[in-house]
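Entry for the shared binder. Reason: the reviewer on the internal report wants the predicted structure included alongside the sequence.
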Amino acid sequence: MKRPPDKSIVYERRNNRRARDMLLSRDFRKIARENLRGRWFPAIVVGFLGGLLGAVMDVSYSTEIFTQTGTSNTDLVDQLKNAGVYDTVLPVFMGIGITVLVMALIHIVIGGAVTLGYAQFFLNVTDDNDPSVGNLFSHIRRLWEGFCMQFFRGMMVMLWSILFVIPGYIALYRYAMTPYIMAENENLSVMEAITESKRIMMGNKWRLFCLDLSFLGWELLGILTLGIGFFWITPYTEATRAAFYREITEQRYSNPAVNSQPINEDVRPEWQTDSDDFTE
């Protein structure tokens, strides 16, 4: 019987090859800029419409803290009446409230499906597959799947965040690739896509965190420009993330010879070694 190789040697060899081929944040940003060349206008339009219609690639959790300032709602109404502006500002506040309610309903109903179309557009940008604004609505028929995707991702992140902030953020990155997976694998259920995202993000969560962190300066610039800069920063960020997804699923850039394969839970990246690798 053939003697199995020393596990430590095999792991060291594979880890060294992985480190040599691993792309850095600047590499993904460069790839995104090249992919967006000549496509900035549709990317900006998709970014704007996607944000307006509730496309959310990262389901984050937030906690709103309501504090009393010492002035009750009744006192505020009395002050407005005494100032003689109550009848003037009431229609404005009602209009704002109705607008917010309508937008919230739109986000709940079609936000998930639009998120899938949003992911589809940037995958097409990455694949040079004739991206167009219409891609944003290419999965609009999947309203229920899109809703379930956002709901279950958000619920899982929220449950992990109950333990502590850090587990919540880890969960946020663990399920970050779910929209891309569902966009190009319509045969998968929501939970299968979430599970697949968890699998492919093993060992890659820190990389994606660093990639997001590399945009911190750009985001500060967007704030300084009163939000105008985000018209360019948002598609830049999303194109970079789509390139990251292609890399961790296909090794497209670090090892172009590797062909794309359909998702299969039995197929693991080369560096994820099972015990069978050491037996004949």
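Summary line for the report: The radius of gyration is 23 Å.
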